[in-house]
Known about the structure:
Largest sheet of chain A: 8 strands, mixed
Strand order of the largest sheet of chain A: 7-6-5-2-1-8-20-19
Mean pLDDT of chain A: 92
Radius of gyration of chain A: 23 Å
Low-confidence stretches of chain A: 432-443
Number of helices of chain A: 11
Helix content of chain A: 25-40%
Number of strands of chain A: 24
Largest interface: A-B, 112 and 112 residues
Oligomer: homodimer
Distance between the termini of chain A: 58 Å
Amino acid sequence: MSHRVVVIGGGFGGLAAVRRLKRAGTEIVLIDRRNFHLFQPLLYQVATGSLTAGEIASPLRGLLKRRRDVTVMLGSVTSLDLEARAVVIDPVGDRDAVTVPYDTLIAAAGAGHAYFGHDEWEPLAPGLKTVEDAIEIRRRILTAFEAAEADDDPERRAAWLTFVIVGAGPTGVELAGQIGEIARDTLRRDFRSIDPASARILLLEGDDRVLTAFDPRLSARAERALGQLGVSVQVGALVSGVDARGVTVTRGDGGTDRIAARTVVWAAGVQASGLARLLAAANGAETDRAGRVTVGPDLALPGHPEVMALGDMVRVADGAGGVLPLPGVAPVAMQQGRYAADAVRRRLAGRGPGPPFRYRDKGNLATIGRLRAVGEIKGLRLSGFPAWAGWLLVHLFYLSGLQNRVLVMIRWTVSFVTHGRGARLITPAEDPPTGRGGSPGAG
Amino acid sequence: MSHRVVVIGGGFGGLAAVRRLKRAGTEIVLIDRRNFHLFQPLLYQVATGSLTAGEIASPLRGLLKRRRDVTVMLGSVTSLDLEARAVVIDPVGDRDAVTVPYDTLIAAAGAGHAYFGHDEWEPLAPGLKTVEDAIEIRRRILTAFEAAEADDDPERRAAWLTFVIVGAGPTGVELAGQIGEIARDTLRRDFRSIDPASARILLLEGDDRVLTAFDPRLSARAERALGQLGVSVQVGALVSGVDARGVTVTRGDGGTDRIAARTVVWAAGVQASGLARLLAAANGAETDRAGRVTVGPDLALPGHPEVMALGDMVRVADGAGGVLPLPGVAPVAMQQGRYAADAVRRRLAGRGPGPPFRYRDKGNLATIGRLRAVGEIKGLRLSGFPAWAGWLLVHLFYLSGLQNRVLVMIRWTVSFVTHGRGARLITPAEDPPTGRGGSPGAG
């Protein structure tokens, strides 16, 4: 029997582990709820009509079809048993739960949105983690302009043309910048009753600046670039209420503001996959407020060197009573995935444990719009064209599959030249057309 | 006041009318429920993972942004008044119904599926008319292979690997051929427990041959090509029951067969848009069994030369007590759209009515798979490579937008070379991931 590695999650971390285990002589089972790897850093471009979902997603079976050592299973993990060394999966279809034994478990199930105890805000202010999220946000943004065009009441029209993005991390900044471009550029000549450029785009941040993970000078530049795209940044602004007609904001001085807005997008916090809770509970531990399980400096569950967890669902202990300050970005998950795979290889070779995990930060880039971006690469601060070009190259490079790279490059080129966005479809329809011809509408 | 033309429907017919009215001095209002024009002839390639929806759809506002004479309105027609010359629209957003007056009305709202009095079959056997339909059928096809892979019960596995397509017109034939290719070619190395090539693909047709609109010799060739892709054609087979576990078929001899299948796709009939019923009722007429309204040889509603209707929602009287035998294809709608636009131009110029509408049949093509197609062009019968190449060129030519043409061409080239399908995503998930991290699944 060869050593069986069960990897949970086909995101950046899980896939990196599977790839690193090529020809390691292991038998790998990759479990995911979805049948594709999603390039999440470009998801905001699906939400804003620049790319289609299929262009940033790659079927897992296709990515791994030449890897006869890998079995892909679609399903959700419902429980796990650290003593028996097995996870239980609820697979697609009719079959009952399946028990999958492991010699090594690599858990890399990622994270979703966090609403800080206000889960009721989710339908009002969707976050951006899945393909479905992106298509729903795209639908809301585009429908808002349509509804404004159809309405002649100035107040309602203004609320339709107000877009609130909560949270000014990279996703929030990129989304706000893109909505600014849609309003000022893409849709410029599309409407007859409204001027899309009159749209208000508000980026709310509880902290004192945007992109807090970056150097403050880059935050200032990003804020300036956002301003040029018509985005108003409000820092020190905590959202204390969300409803169907807008948001309530508590300012730093304790006062509150009411913003009438029909489109609110949540980019403010993440909550680890429930798998983190299962792991912690199985080991008699607890998760932190963000739902993360704590792993050792070697990414292993304390007392279980055969169980490693990584990415957005974990905190990594630094071995001195604290945790490593790791950002929730793809490179961290990928490096951790490779680290976990190397640990398996080392164990199979009978070698002792390696050095603790250490994140090599190659840099950080965030794009704001056409020719506008900020970044840090090896301590070098970039902005404007160099940062923007670097961002394009890095994202094309890491996108899975040559075909997707070519398709995305073409879409970007055409968008750049024509100022257009080819994929700005409103789907699904709010009242999904059944195709039955029953409703007397058109199309 | 310039002459106001209201066009209902941004499909092939409506868009052709709008385009032909360029610089006619009219004021045009184009009404559609969706914000994009959909290239329906390629929808089956979305349903089978070859293309993404965004690649065969073009935003209507984008297509018409340079046409200052055109206003696009998103909404459904809820009623119409032939005397007052106005339609009432339920627009997107909060606004109440809007009355849109017209001088000329061009109704081109198309058709949906027909289940011959068995509407309860729709959720069990979806048809293929909308983007949502295509994504749902794609989800079902791909999930069936996943569920078969996850199941170890031979009977359930066989039912998951049985695909029934009802109706052997072009859509049914093309879908069946594509599913055959998916099973025998695309997924060949993707699974570990099942052999996708063992899938049964059944194409059921009530008539005595496939592609009844084509020459019988081409039907025979198509049937042979389908056989080579592993598709079993059953002619003279009427579906008399559909449920979650399969279909019941009544044979020509009156006997019934039971087919256990978990995936059933409906390609058997169309039902005109409800707008046809509104038009007929407003004029004191009735629709036919397929819900179509009858228009005169000039496409006008009897007694109302200012109201024209066209495409899949009408029957066109031949002026001699019968109706024109027009197939439900895009070229008919496009020619009718241009005919209607020309009638408007003629009226504005003070000229008398033109000759009745006459369909110029330029040919008919259906593709079955890789290098396999059949067609007739100006009486010339084609099959094999020439028909296949012709099909590719015609479809690329008529696809809207240079960008989409390039993207589709790249996808086709890559699929052809690699035998792959880049867009085979299962979305939306049956249990849509909320992104909340609450469920302990992966990804």
